[in-house]
Amino acid sequence: MANIVKKAMISKPQIIVEYTAKIAKVADDKLRRRYLPIFDNKICLLTKHKKQNQILPVLRAHWAGELITWDSFDTDILGSFDGKTARVMSPLQCALKKAHIACELSGLNQGLGSEGSFNGFLGMGNMNEEFIAFVDIRRKIEIVGVARKMVSLQSCVAESPEALDKFISQFAPEQAWILETKCNEFKGLFGIDSVLACVKEDDWPVTISPDFRAMHCPERHITLEYATKDLLKRLSAKCPSCEYPGFVFEKKILGLPCELCGSPTNQAKAYQAECNKCRFSVSKNVEEQQAASFYCPMCNP
Ligand SMILES: [Zn+2]
Ligand SMILES: [Zn+2]
Which residues form the DUF6671 domain (predicted)? Predict the structure, then answer.
């Protein structure tokens, strides 16, 4: 297995953009009318945590092929949420690597891999970011979809069974928990009864944290669905010159003139799409002609 991991290529990261729920909805309607001839009849998804449950329904709207899921590869050796295996790659690189490993293990030309992360965000909660990578090793295509979403999940130190119950009951019953006591750690616990069954009388206080593994974390499911929709959007956006996918307008070109003094501001005046294969590029101006003076370095230094 170690050889397989070493052999799988790490590809250069692409520029990515934030992808909101609102955009996902618009893209969804457009995608429904589009055919994705890029997919083979069989694609392999590398997942230990049942991500096909979120990914396949999104693909199904556009593709009738067979999704082979490969669950015997321990994806946690590439880094795990409990921190026991350090993450040396970025989530994007990790998603691409999993997609390449899917091809290598299955012998298929097309693979999917996905990776998520959680980061504290200005003390407001956790930002969940999900990447899903598609690779076609024969045609040398690598495209990565991404979505980000704030989630309410957090950890807590509980002093008593009542405090623990109050904390857990704020979240969906399908959310699993990790309990840390003085000497032990228990993962994948659902509901207050199964958590309390692991706590001995002299264990209090105990630490309870969300189990972020995909099959145990309903809040990730939504983000993963959006990321898959973003992937489809990118796959269906082809370069006008060479037809390589991923031709999306996401590179900001700053300098929209200030409404008061006309100086260039730090707001986008256009968005550029650039082909990752032939480097053909097109830019589209934004609809606004002027930026609010709030963004102007001269009027609002
Ligand atoms: Zn091109
Ligand atoms: Zn100004």
Answer: 100-301
